[in-house]
């Protein structure tokens, strides 16, 4: 048996690489040209730097607004909103289901007026906004549009992304509400709305990040993300949306972990594989074949032990994302394994990106690791292995069917278990955790008073219900139900009307629940047969 070390995806690594290890390489490719291995634009960061998009949101709308303003003053170039769990799950702050969770992992949004407070004083037509929201994505997008229109800003001037990737919720996160089929209908309806309205907005960000955080390998991250993307594209085409109308609007969301060269190769391999999928399967144009993606450094790699070590981890991961050609980047704060980031740690995370951009020299030339025998070898190996996994998903009937069978879930669980075993055996070193350990007591900064915060939010939603026109509210929710009951009536116009009538996130979600029901994962899905998906 070989004693060669392995990459995090299990690819054996030789002592040295040469031209004999590279089947094709990228010497004949140019950035900005199909298959885009070397980058989706000819000059990449020489023409424009990646977007510094730090993810933030907690507590009340005012607290989130203050953090956004501080980040913008510090040089951030795009906003990214985190929502609390009740908002993600379609419950209002005064629901019994929201007890103990209001404002804890993101900002609490009940009505469109809450979202207006989040963006108070921020010019929505001058910033791009990413909203990490899935099951209730259509509702939050509608709220964002209404906030803008009530300020006199047309939807055709709004730039940004709504995550809207519900399939990965069934795989890795669990913040789904409805069964898969109506959920996919809602996703596709957002596609159709954005295309129809000509909005410069990405109607989906297909996420490998959360699957990677749940424990999958880099190979699985590429393959499972693209399996979901194929499912979404197939649904869009079945709904009558042309590939060249929707594919250029699809964005992706990947993780960056610590294996620097494998991570760089992962992004290069993903670009090439996606370009080939869209060209060969759908006949898409060059614009449709470009893989545009946001990257976040790996939250699961952060340690509560010796938390300052996370500064170094985040810098390495951010470097991997930039060397790999990301379009936007979030760098985690070093204290996130302990608590919500402090203002100082959030600023340092942003400064990490700025040092990469302005001091490191990595933005001076495109795809600087091209031609490295090792990186080219890893790029080819990752692409080949991810393509093999995609073929297995297709044999299972596609992503939605594979999710029903639980094969993604089991494969990720096995990969996560194998990694944890390797850490516990000492085969994988985590500095400060299983080697170079010190006796220490990490200081956890005090958090906000969530009970007081929840009470403020409950009073607000109660007052919002008191002020609204009851008849207009009732009629708008009935239109949401009617659209949901119909075979193919668009949902977004009814949801927009309900938002204008000051219906809450929970009320609109409840109207859809009444028609579609809710989803409960079965034991069979949780323990499906992963076959060769296994790590």
How many individual domains? 1
Amino- and carboxy-terminal Cα gap: 18 Å
Query: Any guess at the CATH architecture?
Result: Alpha-Beta Barrel
Which homologous superfamily in CATH is the superfamily?
Answer: Methylmalonyl-CoA mutase
Radius of gyration: 23 Å
Strand order of the largest sheet: 5-4-3-2-1-9-8-7-6
> How is the biggest beta sheet arranged?
9 strands, parallel
Order of helices and strands: EHEHHEHEHHEEHHHEHHEHEHHHHHHHHH
List the helices and strands and how they pair.
Layout lengths: L50 E6 L4 H13 L4 E5 L2 H5 L22 H7 L9 E5 L4 H13 L9 E4 L4 H7 L6 H18 L3 E2 L1 E4 L1 H5 L4 H21 L4 H4 L3 E7 L3 H23 L3 H4 L3 E5 L11 H15 L4 E3 L12 H16 L14 H23 L3 H7 L1 H19 L24 H18 L2 H16 L6 H9 L4 H12 L6 H4 L9
Parallel strand pairs: 1-2, 1-9, 2-3, 3-4, 4-5, 6-7, 7-8, 8-9
């Amino acid at each position: 048996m070989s004693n060669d070390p392995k990459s995090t995806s299990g690819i054996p690594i030789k002592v040295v690489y040469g031209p004999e290890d590279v089947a094709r390489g990228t010497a004949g490719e140019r950035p900005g040209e199909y298959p885009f291995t070397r980058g989706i634009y000819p000059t990449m960061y020489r023409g424009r730097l990646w977007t510094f998009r730090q993810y933030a949101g907690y507590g009340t709308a005012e607290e989130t607004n203050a953090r956004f303003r501080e980040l913008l003053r510090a040089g951030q170039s795009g906003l990214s909103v985190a929502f609390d769990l009740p908002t993600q799950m379609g419950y209002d702050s005064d629901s019994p289901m929201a007890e103990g969770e209001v404002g804890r992992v993101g900002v609490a949004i009940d009505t469109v007026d809450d979202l207006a407070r989040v963006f108070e004083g921020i010019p929505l037509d001058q910033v791009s906004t990413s909203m990490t929201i899935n099951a209730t994505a259509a509702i939050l997008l509608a709220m964002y549009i209404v906030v803008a229109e009530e300020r006199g800003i047309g939807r055709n001037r709004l730039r940004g992304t709504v995550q809207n990737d519900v399939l990965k919720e069934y795989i890795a996160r669990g913040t789904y509400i409805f069964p898969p089929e109506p959920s996919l209908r809602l996703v596709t309806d957002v596609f159709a709305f954005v295309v129809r309205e000509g909005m410069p907005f990405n109607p989906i960000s297909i996420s490998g990040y959360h699957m990677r955080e749940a424990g999958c390998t880099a190979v699985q991250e590429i393959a499972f993300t693209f399996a979901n993307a194929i499912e979404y594209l197939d649904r869009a085409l079945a709904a009558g949306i042309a590939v060249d109308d929707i594919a250029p609007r699809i964005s992706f969301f990947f993780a960056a972990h610590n294996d620097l060269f494998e991570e760089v190769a992962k992004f290069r391999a993903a670009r090439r594989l996606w370009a080939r999928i869209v060209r060969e399967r759908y006949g898409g144009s060059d614009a449709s074949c470009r893989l545009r993606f946001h990257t976040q450094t790996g939250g699961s790699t952060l340690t509560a032990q010796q938390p300052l070590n996370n500064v170094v981890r985040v810098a390495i991961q951010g470097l991997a994302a930039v060397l790999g050609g990301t379009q936007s980047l979030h760098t985690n704060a070093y204290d996130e394994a302990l608590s919500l980031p402090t203002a100082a740690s959030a600023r340092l995370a942003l400064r990490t990106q700025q040092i990469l951009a302005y001091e490191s020299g990595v933005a001076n030339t495109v795809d600087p690791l091209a031609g490295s025998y090792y990186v080219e070898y890893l790029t080819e190996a990752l692409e080949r292995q991810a393509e093999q996994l995609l073929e297995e998903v297709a044999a299972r009937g596609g992503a939605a069917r594979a999710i029903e069978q639980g094969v993604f879930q089991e494969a990720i669980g096995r990969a996560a278990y194998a990694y944890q075993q390797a850490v516990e055996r000492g085969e994988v070193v985590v500095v400060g955790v299983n080697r170079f350990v010190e006796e220490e007591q990490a200081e956890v900064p005090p958090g906000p008073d969530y009970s007081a915060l929840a009470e403020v939010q409950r009073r607000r939603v109660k007052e919002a219900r008191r002020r609204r026109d009851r008849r207009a509210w009732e009629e708008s929710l009935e239109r949401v139900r009617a659209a949901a009951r119909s075979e193919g009536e668009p949902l977004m116009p009814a949801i927009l009307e309900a938002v204008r009538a000051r219906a809450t996130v929970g009320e609109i979600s409840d109207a859809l629940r009444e028609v579609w029901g809710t989803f409960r994962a079965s034991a069979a899905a949780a323990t499906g047969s992963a076959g060769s998906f296994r790590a």
